[in-house]
Amino acid sequence: MSTKTHPRFSWPKLRSVELHAFFAVQPGSRCALGPSIGRDVLAGANGIGKSTFLGTVNFALTGAVPEPKREFLSAAAYFQKARDYTRSFYDGRIAELDRDAAAVSVQFSVHERTYAIKRNLFSIGALEELQISQGGNVVHRSDGAAAEENEQHYRSDLCQTIGLNSFDQFVMLQHFLFTFDESRHLVFWDREVSSALLHVCFGGNAQEAGRADWLHREMEKAASRGRNYQFQANNISKRIETLEASIKAGTDNTADGENAQAQYEALTVASERAVTERDEAERQVNEAELKVMSSHAEVIAMRGAYAKAFEQFMTGISSPQRHPLVSSAIADCRCPVCQNEGVHIAQAIQAKLQATQCPLCASSIAPTNATPGEQRGIDAAGRCTCDGQAQPG
Question: Is the pTM of this model over 0.85?
């Protein structure tokens, strides 16, 4: 559930990446990188490992390297396919003597929660180390726990913190939406995955998005069965036509009349059964399409309601607390002027608001129950009115 100060989803922010016994790094040594605030770009000649580095970061976060073709049937099916691809991804990239030591460690934060994890590059579905902190306090540490237990705890805790219904959905978002590499797979060129992502990001909730993903997969299966039944029906129809022509010809090569009639009747029954099964498959496909169309209609209605609510919010600002600049700074714990981050940013702004002071110029602000002519602070246009007259912000 989203609020005015907290979005419905909180996405991971990468803090550090550390490679162990990787490529040219000598055995036992480490290579640590600290992404900067904003965006990081990898540039360099072909073959130096840019795509492998991105794939390894994704492997650390999701336990799978993005599958190059990005073929999408469902979130769960894609995750399994990516895991199968990952099993041989590092073969030849890592020296055999370094297989046990080769690993990647990442640290990232989701809202106020910080995760520190370590994966061996040749272990699928297992975390060697896991530590979760919040507010400077360690809330979970993997001391003595099995690697598979660490993996399950990590998936469950991360999905709950982000606001997703399943880890499969996080893998889909990370591989298709948050990663852009040399494959240049643009998500909105892919009808299946873009539909699934729209359900997750703009649908009623993450659980309904999972249901829509399952319905889409079932629709694909029903359509495949329908094509198979149609193919069988066509083959049976051709065999019937061949038998009818053989009976009418009346040559010495014609099969015995009674046997031919029995075969004809059996094939007719089989043909009718195949047609019935095909019709049932088409009915299931139509029902699945109606359900998907209904889900799309709900998404469109929710987007319209969101746009209307947002417009009302933007045109109805009557207090500094609701100003977009102030509410965004509190929600993101980021100063919009100097771009510094931290909980102390939100605490400082809230302290000034509680002291009825403007967060930017420290001038006094009238209580929110004052009349429109008496109100001071920040007006709907984003200008400071602390002296009673609108001033440039």
Answer: no
